[in-house]
Every structure is written in structure tokens, then in C-alpha cells.
Amino acid sequence: MFSATRHWRRGAARGVTALLFALLAAAASGCSREPARSVEDRAPAAPAPTTAAPNEASRPKIVALGDSLTAGHGLLETQSYPALLQDKLNEDGYNWEVVNAGISGDTTAAGLQRLDWTLQEPDVRILILELGANDGLRGLSVSEMRKNLSAIIERAQQKRIAVLLAGMEAPPNYGPEYAASFRQVYRDLAREYRVTLIPFMLSGVAGIGSLNQSDGIHPNIEGTRIVAETLWTALRPMVDAAGGS
Fold first, then answer.
1. Which entry of 3, 150, 181, 215 is annotated as an active-site residue?
2. Is there a catalytic annotation at residue 215?
3. Minimal CA–CA distance to 137: which of 205, 70, 39, 220?
4. Whether 87 is catalytic
5. What is the pLDDT of residues 79-115, one digit of tens each?
6. Domain 20-27+59-241, what architecture?
7. What order of strands is seen across the sheet that includes strand 97-102?
8. pLDDT-based confidence at residue 216 (cuts at 50, 70, 90)
9. Domain-wise residue ranges, the chain
């Protein structure tokens, strides 16, 4: 049974994260170097936050800090990957809570700005860090993205919170050099801070029509199940290491 997850939203969703899906799919046929257009007008109004059960304050927590991929754009709350991870924890007997701290449109800078507030949750043990797709979508500075992600990881580690870093890919229309530098940021950070890395969180989903919503951008429920499986494979050992069973 799904355990309630709490959402931080900001009214109507700002800028949608993963035009990445469409761009990756288009890479094989060749893309122009024109900046990707926002599909902000397609984002649904954010649902009201749910209320946690009284006993959840004492449970160890996993905070999923991210953008529309974490927020579950276009899906029911119970179909987002944080909700699916909660189901897996419950099914396997882990008395943990997953907190969905995804906000559509967030860049790494925006995630850093709200990090301290997000980590005020009691007994946070693990941070799933899923940010960067919007930086890549907008062609923002790779060095600034790295600086922001570094700061997030450092603050989490100062609080003795383990980090699961979910890697993303830059859209191909900014050129191979930008894409390679973007990709390398995640690998370098994982090595520097010794955090668990998923090289590309959308592996096996991005660019596959049957696994994405009608906009061709965001994973549908089947695609999100694959994302959740990818994350769970890396997350479960971290929960066990934190004494989670």
C-alpha cells in the first residue's frame, strides 16, 4: 500500500524538464542547433500537497530532490517514481518514507536554493539527486551546473546523508562537446565525492514512444516503472547500508 509522500510545488509547472526525451530521439536523424522551445503551457496545475501520517516523523527518510521527472509530470501522484519506490520499500518490509521534493522546471541552481529547507525533514538518511536536465535543455554553463551539484552533495554529506546521483544527458542540439562535458560532470562528481551514480536515469526509456506520454517528452507509467527499477537497483543497497530493514 502506498505510503503518503509530500510534494513541494510552485503553482503551475515552470518550464518542463525533459524535452531531452524528444531531443535524444531526434539525435539519430540530426538536430538543428536552435535552442529547444519550452512546453511550459502544457504543464498541468500542481496538485495540493498530501499530509503525512502522524507516525511518519519517526521513520528514516529518502528525499528525492528533482524536477518534473521526480515530480511526476502528467502522472497521478501514486505513479511518480518516488511513489513507486515507496511501494517497493513497503513490499520488502522497509519502514522508510520517500519524500517527493520534485518541482517541474527546476535547474541545479533552483534545487540548491531550496536544499536547506528540503533537508529540514527529520531523519533524512538518503538524498536522490535528480537535477541537471533543465540546465542542459537551456544550454546553461556546465561549470555552473557542476558547482551547484557539488554544493548540494557537500551539504548533504555534512548532514551525514548518503547521495544517489541520477545522471542526465544534454540535448544534442548544443553540439557534441557540450554533451560530453555535461555527461562528464556526473562521473567526475561521483568519483570526487564517492557517491553512488546512475549514469543515465532515463536509460531504456528516453526516445522510446511507447514508454513516454503523448507529448513525447515525459515517461508514461510504463516508462516510469522502468525508471523506478533502475533507481531501486542502486537504492536498495544504500538503504541496507543505512540499517534500513
1. 215
2. yes
3. 39
4. no
5. 999 999 999 999 999 999 999 999 999 999 999 999 9
6. 3-Layer(aba) Sandwich (3.40)
7. 97-102, 61-66, 124-130, 162-166, 196-198
8. confident
9. 20-27+59-241
